[in-house]
Amino acid sequence: MRILAFGCHPDDVEYMSAGTLALLSERGHDIHIATMAGGEVGSPTLKSREIREKRLKEAESSARIINGTYHFAGGHDLEIEYNHEYRQKSVRIMREVNPDIVFTGPPDDYLIDHEITSKLVRNAAYIASVPLFDCGFPVKPMEKIPYLFYWSPLGLKDIFGKKPEYHFGVDITTVMETKKKMLLCHKSQDEWIRYLNKVSIADNMEELSRKMGLLIDRPYGECFFQHLGEGHPQDNILKELLGPICRFICTDLTETD
Questions:
Q1: Which one of 67, 170, 178, 225 is most buried, by most CB atoms within 10 A?
Q2: pLDDT surpassing 90 at residue 253
Q3: What is the pLDDT of residues 29-44, one digit of tens each?
């Protein structure tokens, strides 16, 4: 299958879904990673053009680790809006990849850019198959509406501190080193987060993955919600593709399958 993980910034995908992507790549699926923005404000020293060029190269390097392809929608960091321009950008990426499965960020997250990107990707997954919608490029409309999954909010809580009620999790223990290697391709982001928040992105990601692993009674995990709105497929295709490592959330750490 063709799989698209579409986030806001370079490194967003790696933080919350790279382990699942690595597992799907191991099983022979075609992996694509896209970002809406280029991380243009993520540096204390470089100019926007310079940090953008650097971060796009880092994103390409990360995708190559799992034999994936990177796509850039052309947006600008901290300027993402739900408007016609960005609808066109997101639909263009959707049509170019033509995915069977789409991952994106949650509708509720700590940063507005993330939330708007989630809404744009959700919309694009549905309208990319509408022939009369002009995305600004001569790209053939999709023939079907894909599966749509949201990864966890950063920090594993919403903006009011409430814990998410995930639909399921994926055991990523066997590919944690791959996930870490992908994230560490984003060296400039690590420098930026150390400057801004005084933490290492690798350490932070590992702790989040460990906490999600606890929810499925495994050392490391990634947890997801499935979009079950009208028009989208309703079955859990990831359970079919990944088998027993796609696990229901444990409310008491005994019910695991």
A1: 170
A2: no
A3: 999 999 999 999 999 8
Give the architecture (CATH level 2) of 2-247.
3-Layer(aba) Sandwich (3.40)
Contact between residue 92 and residue 73 where contact means Cβ atoms under 8 Å apart = yes
Question: Coil, helix or strand for 124?
Answer: helix
Report residue 46 as tokens. 């470089």
- Closest C-alpha to 107, from 75, 148, 74: 148
Closest among 212, 234, 254 to 20, alpha carbons compared = 212
The span from the CA of 107 to the CA of 98, in Å, is 22
**Residue 254: how many CB atoms within 10 A of its CB?**
7
Report the predicted TM-score, pTM, of the whole model to 2 decimal places.
0.95
C-beta neighbour count of 31 within 10 angstroms: 21
Report the distance separating Cα 36 and Cα 47, nearest Å: 19
Mean pLDDT of the chain: 95
Q: Kindly report the CA angle at 107 between 197 and 32, in degrees rounded to 5? A: 80
